[in-house]
């Protein structure tokens, strides 16, 4: 290097000069008074000859490592088009209004729900007065009403147009809320096993009593005359909403061996999918009240498991509208695509973290998932390949929904934010 060479030359010249001056005297130390510490410019000149490319390629020791800039860029990646930041705690639920898909309602840990415009995030209605985290919030079938329910069991219904609270009721610890598909009727399930039904805003009430066992999930069928309710003991009941009696009770060896976590029905309401902490999904013929299929993957304990902690819980299920396919999402991060006619596993789509929720597009074979790693992913069920991935949240996604055209997704997260993503795909 130039720097070392110049130092040696300077020392040699100094020693020769000293010998000439002092003759045979012993030299104790030679100090060159003309030398100064090299400055930045000197060092820059000296380093010009160093070939950093050759040094970096030797052994490729940096392979697989991210630079600080790359890590910051990854952490700051935000594919969303709008962020709704009014909540001051985790956001547990989000829904779009079914009439126009232009409004969203979100509920969170801050004991509030907000109705806001998806295009610009403007708040149209603040649903205040709750006593606990709002875990249920959704629009009625015609989008004229919005219901919000908190964990303590306080349920409120608001008229969107006038921004007024028009009805409220308090039940036991709330598990779920569900609007009727074609009438201003609200259904709710509670921790003590009760299922409540009200006409809104009149408040006419009917209850569906069952053994004291938590009503963990519920779904009104498309005909609006029946509802399927899943319970903590693994029982599934099909209720006649008019008569108030259970048409079918599915339990025992053919039923689930653990608490129900999710429900979904096909388009005509003839089949129901149920998911449970026992690691299984069950296909039920609703008319017959019979289990006609059981689905599980490796890692699940199967239908005989009674250990909820060890089983690979099913977190979400759904039917494809255009092909005979179903999707089952597991807590271990597996998205399983099954053929409905043969009940064979077609694809296993891996996630790095547990899946929270899945949703099929209405008129395609694409199924979307949100997971605990904070990402939204779109999968082609025909090939099993991921077709798109959207990031932006800094915590887990707890809920999401899509518009009818599947061009927009709204996600709710533990980072206190709701994000709107425009979904772009090459096939559109």
UniProtKB/TrEMBL annotation:
The organism named in the record is Oreochromis niloticus
Indicate the segments forming the Anaphase-promoting complex subunit 4-like WD40 domain, all copies.
319-397
Q: Which domain of life is it from?
A: Eukaryota
Coiled-coil zones: none
Report residue spans for region: Disordered. 1-81
Q: What PROSITE patterns does UniProt report for this protein, alphabetically?
A: WD_REPEATS_1 (PS00678), WD_REPEATS_2 (PS50082), WD_REPEATS_REGION (PS50294)
InterPro entries per record: Apc4-like_WD40_dom, Quinoprotein_ADH-like_sf, WD40/YVTN_repeat-like_dom_sf, WD40_repeat_CS, WD40_rpt, WD_repeat_multifunction
Q: WD repeat boundaries?
A: 84-126, 127-168, 222-249, 253-294, 348-389, 390-428
Q: Which UniProt keywords are listed? A: Repeat, WD repeat
- The gene it comes from is AAMP
Q: Which residue windows does the record flag with biased composition (Acidic residues)?
A: 26-81
The protein in question is named: Angio-associated, migratory cell protein
GO terms under cellular component:
cytosol
């Amino acid at each position: 290097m130039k720097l070392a060479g110049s130092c040696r030359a300077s020392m040699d010249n100094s020693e020769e000069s000293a010998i000439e001056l002092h003759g045979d005297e012993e030299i104790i130390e030679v100090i060159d008074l003309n030398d100064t510490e090299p400055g930045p410019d000197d060092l820059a000149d000296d380093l010009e000859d160093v070939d950093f490319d050759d040094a970096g390629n030797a052994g490729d020791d940096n392979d697989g490592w991210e630079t600080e800039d790359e890590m910051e860029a990854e952490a700051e990646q935000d594919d969303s088009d709008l962020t709704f930041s009014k909540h001051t705690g985790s956001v547990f639920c989000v829904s779009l209004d079914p009439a126009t898909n232009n409004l969203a309602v979100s509920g969170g840990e801050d004991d509030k729900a907000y109705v806001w415009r998806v295009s610009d995030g403007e708040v149209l209605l603040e649903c205040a007065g709750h006593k606990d985290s709002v875990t249920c919030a959704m629009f009625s079938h015609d989008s004229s009403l919005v219901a919000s329910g908190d964990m303590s069991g306080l349920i409120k219904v608001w008229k969107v147009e006038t921004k007024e609270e028009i009805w409220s009721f308090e039940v036991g610890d709330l598990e779920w809320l569900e609007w009727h598909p074609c009438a201003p009727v609200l259904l709710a399930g509670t921790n003590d096993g009760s299922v409540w039904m009200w006409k809104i805003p009149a408040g006419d009430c009917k209850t569906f009593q069952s053994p004291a066992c938590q009503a963990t999930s519920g779904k009104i069928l498309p005909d609006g005359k029946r509802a399927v309710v899943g319970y903590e003991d693994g029982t599934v009941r099909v209720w006649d909403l008019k008569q108030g009696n259970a048409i079918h009770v599915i339990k025992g060896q053919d039923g689930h061996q653990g608490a129900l976590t999710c429900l979904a029905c096909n388009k005509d309401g003839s089949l129901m999918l149920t998911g449970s902490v026992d690691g299984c999904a069950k296909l039920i013929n609703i008319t017959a009240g019979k289990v006609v299929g059981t689905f599980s993957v490796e890692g699940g304990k199967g239908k005989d498991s009674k250990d909820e902690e060890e089983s690979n819980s099913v977190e979400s299920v759904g039917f494809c509208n255009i092909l005979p396919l179903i999707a089952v999402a597991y807590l271990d991060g597996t998205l399983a695509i099954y053929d409905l006619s043969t009940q064979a596993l077609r694809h296993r789509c891996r996630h790095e973290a547990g899946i929270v929720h899945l949703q099929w597009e209405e008129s395609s074979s694409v199924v979307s998932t949100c997971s605990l790693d904070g990402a939204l992913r779109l999968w082609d069920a025909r090939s099993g390949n991921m077709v798109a991935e959207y990031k932006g949240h800094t915590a887990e996604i707890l809920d999401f929904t899509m518009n009818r055209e599947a061009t927009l997704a709204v996600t709710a997260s533990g980072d206190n934010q709701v994000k709107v993503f425009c979904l772009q795909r090459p096939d559109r």
